[in-house]
Amino acid sequence: RLASKKRRKLPLPPGPPAEPLIGHLRIFPDPASTAEVFHGWSVKYGDVFSLQVPGETVIVLASEKAASDLLEKRSAIYSDRIRFGYYDSIGWGDAIILAPYGPFLTRQHKLFSDAFGKGVVHVYRGVQEREANILLKGLLDDPNDFDRHAIRFAGGIVTDVGYGHHIDSLDDDFFSMGERFLQYATAVTAPSLLDLHPRFAYLPPWVPGAWFVKFIKETKPFMDAILNNNFQRVVEQITAGTARPSFVASNIEAMYGEKHDAEHERATKLAAVMIFAAGFETTWRAVTIFIAVMLLYPEVQEKAQEEIDRVIGRDRLPDLGDRDSLPYVQCVINEVMRWEPIVPFGLPHRSVADDVYNGMHIPKGSIVFANTRSLTWDESKFHEPQKFKPERFLPKPEGAGEIFPASAVFGWGRRVCAGRYLAEGSLWTAAARILAVFAISPEKDANGQSIKPNIKFTTMLTRSVVTACKNKQSSIILCLTVIRNLLRVIFIHATNGPVN
Ligand code: HEM
C-alpha cells in the first residue's frame, strides 16, 4: 500500500497547459490531425506526455523505446482496451479488437494465430493472387476507378478467407453488407455519452446528445444479421457438402464430434466478423495509398519495375515465392507503410494497474497511444524521415540499413495486429503485380503535358487518399495506368478467363 501511495505522489508525464476541470478537452485534436498534433507535442514535452480529458488520463508514447518498454515489455499491464459503448450495447464488446484483456480475448487470439500465423498464412496465396489478378483486370479496363478496384480486392480476400465466399461483383450481397457495416463503424467513432457508461443506451431518445439510442435500435438488427447469417450460411454449406475452405468452415468442422461448445461458436462468429472489420478497410487503403505514392515517385516505380523484369523475367507475374528475390520491391512497400502509415496514431490500449516509468506515474486505467507518426518520423532511426526513400531499408552500403518499424505499423505486445502476415502478403501481391504490369502515371492535358498530381492524405479511422489532380474537383486521384508489359496482360486474361 505504501508503495502505491508513493507512486501516486510521482508526477504524471508532462503535457500542454490544461484548463481547470476540462483539462485538454478543448485542444484535443480531431482524428484528421491527431497524429501530427501529438507529434508536435512530443517535440515539446518529450517522448512520454500526458493529457487530461474529463474522467480520463491519456498517455502518448512517441518513441519506439517508450512504446516497446511499456506496451511490449509490460504488456500484462497495457493490453486492455477502452470501452466502446455502441459495441457493448449490441453485444460485440468482447470481439477481438475491442475485447478487454482476458480469457475470451486469448481464445480469439488463438483462432487468429491458428488461421493467420506466419507459418500457415501461405494457404491464402491462391486467393490473394486471384484477387490481385481481378484488380489488374479492373485497372486495365478502368484505371480511374482504381479506388473501387482496391475495395473489391480487399473485400474479395477477407470474405473468401473468412467465410469461403467468392465475391462476383461489387453488387454482391456480402460486399454491400460489408460497406454498410463500415459506414456504421465510422459513425460510432463520434464520442458520446455512451462511451462513459453503457446504461446511457437506455436514455429516452429525445434527450439532447442521445442520438445513439435511435442509432442502436436501427442498426442492431443489421449487426445481428452480419454476425449470425453469414456464419449460418457456412453451417448449411457444410451440411450440404458445398462449403469452401475458410476460417469459419474449419472452425465449425473442428467442433464436429465434440460436445457443442457455445463459447467456441461465439468466438468464431465474432472473430470472423473482425476479419472483415480489421482487414477490409486497412488492406483497401494500403493499396490505394501505394498507387498514389507510385504516382508521386515515378523514379521509384521504374527502379522497382527494373528489379522485377531483371529477376523474374517478363513472361510471368510475380508471386509471393519471389518475395525474397525482390528486395527493392519489399523496401518500396515498407516505405509506403512507414511514410503514410495506415493507422497513424495507433489503436488505444488501456492500462490495468498503476505504473511508474522514468520517474513518472502512469495511473491505472490510462488510455495509452503509441503515436505511429512520431515513431516513423524519428530522426534517430531514419535519416530525412519525412522523405520517401525506399532504399533506406536496403542493407549498407547500397542503402542506409535502416529497420522497418513493424511494431509502429502493426501494433504492440499482446494487441499486435492479428492479421499482419495476411495483410503483408495481400499488399505485396497487389503491389508487385501492379508494378509488373502497369506504369502508373498522371493524366495528360490537351497539349499532351502531364498534369501534376496534387495528392493529399487524410485520416478518419485509417489513412486514405482524398484529393486529386489539381484541375479536377474529384475526391480520388485521376491517373492513367499505362500498360508496360503486354505479355503479362495476356497472361492475366489467360489465367483468369472471365473475371469470376
Ligand atoms: C495493411 C493492413 C493492416 C494494418 C496496417 C493493420 C494494423 C493494425 C493495428 C495498428 C492494430 C492495432 C494494434 C495495437 O493495438 O497495438 C491492428 C489490430 C488488429 N488487426 Fe490489423 N492491420 C492490417 C490488416 C489486418 C488484417 C488483414 C486483419 C485480419 C485478417 C487484421 C486483424 C487485426 C485484428 C483482429 C486486430 C486486433 C488485435 C487485438 O486487439 O488483440 N488486420 N491492426
Automatic annotation (TrEMBL):
Protein name: Cytochrome P450
Native source species: Irpex rosettiformis
